[in-house]
Amino acid sequence: LLLPAARWLVAGARPGRAALSTAPNPNKKRWLRAYLEQQRLQEPPRRRSEKPNWDYHAEIQAFCRRLHENFSLDLLKTAFVNSCYIESEEARRRQLGLDKEAVALHLQDNSRLSEQGRAFSRSYLTRCFEAAYPDLPAAGTRALVDFLTSQELVSYVAQNLSIQDLTLCRDFPVPPNVLQRTFFAVIGALLNSSGPEKTEIFVRDFFIPQLIGKDLFEMWEVINPMGLLVEELTKRNISAPEPRITRQLGASTVLPLYFVGLYCDKKIIAEGPGETLLAAEEEAARVALRKLYGYTENRRPWDYSKPKPALAAAKAVSSN
Amino acid sequence: RYIRQLQRLQLLLSPTSADSRGARQFVEEAAVDFARQHPDVVLYVSLRSGRAPVLLAEYLNGTVREELIANKTNEEIVQLATKLAGQSGLDIIRIRKPFHTDNPSIQGQWHPLTNKPSALTVQGPRLQPK
């Protein structure tokens, strides 16, 4: 840090006032750096656009190149504009006393694009899950799609794609629902610029990997797995499951462990552990449901290959 | 798809000091090529005198890394910039182990009940009628 030299000339007991430059007071400098660092850390967070070195157009172009997609730039710029931003800007301009024409911002909202993007991604994800897990009931696919389009997940993905820097919003740090809306608006803009196939690949690339490592019942809240299991088995014409204790350890201790197996027609369908008998039975029912729906941990990984041309040909034939 | 984690590079140099000579040469010769080769990184060049020349790298997860480029040659700065462009924004700390696996056990981790016969399964050949 270069501090102005003049301050240090006013010295304490120092002989020779005629000396032009004295050594800087060593005691004063030691805490200064720590103090400035503390001040820097205690500052309220500011938007990246308010910090030095920011070029909005260049950032948007880099954003397009980063995602390897061609967007039409004005659609993308509308996608980042939120309604709260427009209101706050107009209020600010009115406060500054500008006349009516200057106050009206000629900016479109991202609500329409956001709705389009949201509907498209939801329908595409539902189609994906119906194709990949045909045994999963509608409630299950709905729960999975809700999880994938939930606020936390979408705002996490959006933040790591630098959408927080590019959104125009009234508050900072941007609240997660605004981030979610903006991300869907970006998807809507992509839909309108590049067409549905590319947007499908985009949605697949960013949403499906969030399922990695997640268990079915972490995402889908099921209150009565045993009842659901009985329903599923009656649909497939299998008799009701009979729970039996397969193994047990430490029944009279503080931490007992029971393995309860579910048997249909004397054949085992699932086995689950638990601390109490009820917990073990519920866990066994959940394991059985996972096996029936095909969502076990050893299922085939997701198929990320390109969409087959047979589908495109089918679409062309149907349109003709 | 691969998304480059580097968002923007800010090159802060001084117009006159001697240690930012390499940085000035980089700006004159190699900066435009670097920007063309990495179209998803925004390169800002700004002048500030009286301070050491620095290359600030901002990543998508918010980390900002400052690298001093004082008394570095043009080529070294290019190498440094490409290195930063290939990094992710995770903190550079000691990695405790050089291996990681998501599937620590293929057939299932052993637990005390793995190979114990349960009460319900039928025992071996002795129980079959001869």
UniProtKB/TrEMBL annotation, chain A:
This is Large ribosomal subunit protein mL44. It comes from Psilopogon haemacephalus. Belongs to the ribonuclease III family. Mitochondrion-specific ribosomal protein mL44 subfamily. Keywords: Endonuclease, Hydrolase, Mitochondrion, Nuclease, Ribonucleoprotein, Ribosomal protein, RNA-binding, Transit peptide. Its main location: mitochondrion. It is found in: Mitochondrion. The gene is Mrpl44. One of its GO terms (cellular component) is microprocessor complex. One of its GO terms (molecular function) is ribonuclease III activity.
Automatic annotation (TrEMBL), chain B:
It is found in: Mitochondrion. Residues 102-130 are annotated as: Disordered. One of its GO terms (cellular component) is mitochondrial large ribosomal subunit. Residues 15-88 form the Ribosomal protein/NADH dehydrogenase domain. One of its GO terms (molecular function) is structural constituent of ribosome. GO terms for biological process: mitochondrial translation. It comes from the Eukaryota. InterPro entries: Ribosomal_mL43, Ribosomal_mL43/mS25/NADH_DH, Thioredoxin-like_sf. Keywords: Mitochondrion, Ribonucleoprotein, Ribosomal protein. PANTHER family: 39S RIBOSOMAL PROTEIN L43, LARGE RIBOSOMAL SUBUNIT PROTEIN ML43. Belongs to the mitochondrion-specific ribosomal protein mL43 family. This is Large ribosomal subunit protein mL43. It comes from Psilopogon haemacephalus.
